Amino acid sequence: MGDWGHILLGVLASGIRLATPYLYAGIGETLGQRSGVLNLGVEGQMLLGAFAAFYVTYRTGNVLGGLLAAALVGLLMGLAMAFVSVNLQAEQGISGIGFYLFGLGLSDLLFQKLLGTVDSVRGVPDAVIPGLSDLPVLGELLFRHNWMVYGAYALVPLAWFVLNKTPWGLMIKAAGENPHAADSLGVSVARVRYATVTLGGVLSAIGGASLSVGLLKIFQQNMTSGLGFIAVALVYFGGWRPVGVLLGALLFSLVNALQLWVQVLGLPIPADFAVMAPYVLTIVVLVIVVQRARPPAALARPFERE
Amino acid sequence: MSTRWQQRGRDMLYPLAAAGLAFLMAAGVLAALGASPLQAYAALVKGAFGSRNALAETLVKATPLLLVGLGICIAFRGQVINIGGEGQMIVGALLATALGLAFPHWPGWVMIPLAMLVAMMGGAVWGGIPGVLKAYYNVNEILSTIMMNAIAVQLMNYLLRGPMIDPVQAQRASQIPQTAALAAAYRLPRWVPTRLHLGALLAVVLAVVVYFLLWRTGWGYRIRAVGHNPHAARYAGIPVKRYTVLALVLSGAFAGLAGMVQVYGVNYRMITDGSATGFTGGAGFNGIVAALLGQLHPLGTIPAAVLFGALLVGANAMQRAVQVPSALVTALNGLVVVFVVSSEYFRRRARKRRLLQQTAASAATAVAPSSPED
C-alpha cells in the first residue's frame, strides 16, 4: 500500500471516530424532535457534559465516574429544557439559545475556576478487538477505536428499533405528529416529551464527554465550537430517521477529517477555508434535503389540552 | 386611557421578575464558588457605573447590543428567529473596513456615511441569504443563520491573517490578526476624554426610527402581520415570502452597522483574537438577550442594552474583586433568556384570567337588575 493509501485509510478511520459526538447528540435530538420538541440547547449540554466528564475523570482517575457525572448533568439540563418547553410552553428556538449560552458560560467559568490550565487525562481506553483488529485495512478502520465510538454506532439500530418496533416509539411519533389525537387515545404527551428531551440531554452530555475524555483527552473553553448545532442540523439532514442521522454524521466527520488532513499535509488551501467547509456543506445539504423530508407536524409547537 | 398604561406596566413586571430570578440564580452560583454574591454584585455595579469613565464604557458596550437588538426586534416581530447577528456584524465590519482602508484620503463626512451604508448592505446580504432560503426553500433559519456565523468567522480569520493583515503585523512574529488603522479623519467623534462615541447616539436615534418603522409604516405593519399570523397575512394579500426576507435583510443590516460602529468608533481598525467572538465580543448573541428583555420593543431595548453593557463592563471589576471569571456573565445572559421566554407563560395566563374576570363582571351587571324580582 502506498503513501496515499495510508493517508486515505487515516482519513477514513478518523472520520469514523469523529462521527461519535455527532451521533450521540444527533440521535438524542432525533428522539426529542420526533416527539415534537426542538432542543437547540444541545451545544450547551455537550459543553457541560464534556466538562463534567473531564473534571471528575481528572480528579478521581475514574473514567466511568466521569461519564456518570456527564450523564447526570445532561439529565438535569434535559429536565430543565423539558420543564420550560412542556410546562411553560416557551418558544423553543429561543429558550434553547438561552440554554446554549448558559452551558457555554458555566463550563468556561467552572473550567477557569476549578482547573485553570489545560491538562490531559488518559480517558476512555481503546478497545482493540482481538483478532478482528489484525485484519488488513478493516482492522485499522473499524476495530481500533475507544469504547465510546462503538457505543455511538450501537445507538443507531437501538434508536431505530425503539422508534419503529416498540409501543413507546409509537407514542413518541404520535406526540410529534398529532398530539391531540395521541392525548385522546390516552397517551400522556407531556410524559413522552419529558422522557425524550431528558434522554436527549443525557445523550448530548455523553456526546460532549466523548469529545473531552473519549477523543481528545482534554477540556478547552468552547471545545465543541458549533458541533452541537451541526448535530441539530443533522437531524433535519437525516429526515428525522436514525439511519439518516448516521449517514449525515459520517459525511460531516469525513469532511472534518479531510479538513484536518489538508492542514496536516500542508496542501495549498487556506486552513480557514477548510474549517469553513462543513458549515457551507450544512447549508447546501439543508437546502437539498428539506425539499424531500417533512418535519414532524407538531415540531416546536407546545401542546395544550383543550 | 390609564388602563392601557396600567396594562403595559403590569406586562413589564414579568420580564423584570424573570431577569431578577436569573440574577438570583447567578448569585447562587457565586455563593457555591465561595464568593460573596453581594460583594460581587457591588463590585459589578461600581465597575459599570462608578465613574464617568465607567459609565462611558458601559454605553460603549451597550451600543452594538442595541444596534443588533433593534434588528432582532424587527426579525422576531416577523416571527423570524435570526441567530446570525455575529456573522452579520463581522461581514458588515469587514466591508466597511476594506472600504476605509482602500480609500484613505476622502473627507470623513463622505466616508463615514458611506461605510455605514456598505456595512448595512453587507449585513443585509448575510441575513438575506438565510431569509431567501427560509422563504423559498423552507430551510430553518435558526440553523442557517448559525452556520452563516461560523462561515463569517472563518472568512474573517482568513482575511485578517492574510490579505487584510496590518503590514506592520505581517512583518512581526506576533502576527496579531488585525488590519491597519483607519485614517484619523474617519474616526467617529468622541466625547473626550472617554471612549464614548457618536455611534451610541446614533443607536438611540435608530431605536426611535425602528419604532416608527414597525408601528407607523406599511412595511412595519406587514412584517408584524406576517409574524402574527402568516396564513391571515397571505389571505389579506401580503406577499408573505417577500416580507420574511425583508425582516431578515433589515435585521442583518442593523447588525452590520453594529460591526462598522465597533471599527470606526472603538478600535479604529478591525481586530480579533482567533476565537469565534474575538471581534464581536458576543454582541451578536447578547443583542438577542437585550431585545428579549426589552420585550422586542425598540425603545424597551435601550435600557436593556445598557443593562447588559453594564454587565460586560462590570464583570471585569467583579473578576478582580471576588476572583470569579467574567464568563459568569455569559451564563447569566443564558439564564435571562430562558427565564424571560418562560415568563411569557405567566403573563398569558394572567391576561386570560383578567379577561375571564371582566366577562364575568359584565355578565353579573347584566344579570343584576333582574335579581330583585326573584
Summarize the structure in words.
The complex is a heterodimer of chains A (306) and B (374). With 306 residues, chain A is an all-alpha fold. Chain A is built from twelve helices and two strands, in the order ααααβαβααααααα. Chain B has 374 residues and is mostly helical. Chain B has one domain (52-313): ABC transporter involved in vitamin B12 uptake, BtuC (Orthogonal Bundle), CATH 1.10.3470. Chain B is globular, with a radius of gyration of 23 Å. Chains A and B meet through helix 4, helix 10 and helix 12 of A and helix 6, helix 12 and helix 14 of B.
Summarize the structure.
Chain A is mainly α.
List keywords for this structure.
heterodimer; A: 306 residues; mainly alpha; ABC transporter involved in vitamin B12 uptake, BtuC; two-stranded antiparallel sheet; 12 helices; 2% strand; B: 374 residues; 76% helix; globular
Radius of gyration of chain B: 23 Å
The total count of helices of chain B amounts to 14
User: Which assembly state applies to the chains in this document?
Assistant: heterodimer
Main sheet makeup of chain B: none
| Name of the level-1 CATH class of chain A | Mainly Alpha
Helix proportion of chain A: over 70%
Q: Tell me the greatest interface.
A: A-B, 46 and 48 residues
* Arithmetic mean of pLDDT of chain A: 91
- Classify the helix fraction of chain B into a percent range: over 70%
Number of domains of chain A: 1
What percentage of amino acids of chain A are in beta strands?
under 5%
Shape call of chain A: globular
SSE string of chain B, helices as H and strands as E: HHHHHHHHHHHHHH
CATH architecture classification of chain A: Orthogonal Bundle
Shape of chain B: globular
Distance between the termini of chain A: 67 Å
Side by side, the strands of the main sheet of chain A go 1-2
Mean pLDDT of chain B: 92
